[in-house]
Write a structure and sequence with these properties.
Elements: E1 2-4, H1 10-24, H2 30-44, E2 48-54, E3 57-65, E4 68-74, H3 83-92, E5 97-103, H4 107-115, E6 119-126, E7 131-139
Antiparallel strand pairs: 1-2, 2-3, 3-4, 5-7, 6-7
């Protein structure tokens, strides 16, 4: 079930955020993620966050700032079960377009987004990590899978 984040969800969300960033971005130092933990925790309070919960436990979440996806994270024990797609579909139903950035080396994420109607619109170097990232965009009026 997908619900808007409450303050009670923050510990589960931050555990998933840290664990999955370290696993998915092994090309970036673990210290980078650890050092940004508190800033991200604080930023979540100003972010629209939706959690996928089962039996009261957060299994994944998606964070938005306007039409920008800050990230989709699913606990690795529950990946490849459709949770990420459900979270993405949920926000596609409330937004007419979405944008995000993803590291070039995160091939699985790029493929996931492409499979869900996103297109690469720009390539840039992210200053904080010195990694290449793709800016990707989805638009309801360009998505043949969209019913709206």
């Amino acid at each position: 079930m997908i619900k808007k984040m409450t303050i009670d969800d923050i510990e589960d969300i931050m555990r998933i955020w840290l664990d999955e960033n370290i696993k998915a971005h092994n090309f970036i130092s673990k210290c980078y993620w650890v050092n940004n933990y508190n800033a991200v925790r604080e930023a979540l309070l100003d972010t629209e966050v939706y959690c996928f919960k089962s039996k009261g436990v957060v299994l994944g979440f998606i964070g938005l700032k306007g039409d920008y996806i800050e990230g989709i994270f699913v606990d690795s024990k529950y990946q490849h079960k459709g949770i990420g797609r459900e979270l993405l579909d949920y926000v596609k139903n409330i937004k007419s377009s979405l944008e995000l950035s993803v590291y070039e080396k995160n091939v699985a994420a790029i493929q996931f987004y492409k499979n869900n109607g996103f297109e690469i619109i720009f390539i840039q170097n992210e200053a904080a990590t010195n990694e290449i990232e793709y800016i990707m965009k989805w638009s309801r009026n360009k998505d043949p899978k969209s019913n709206r």
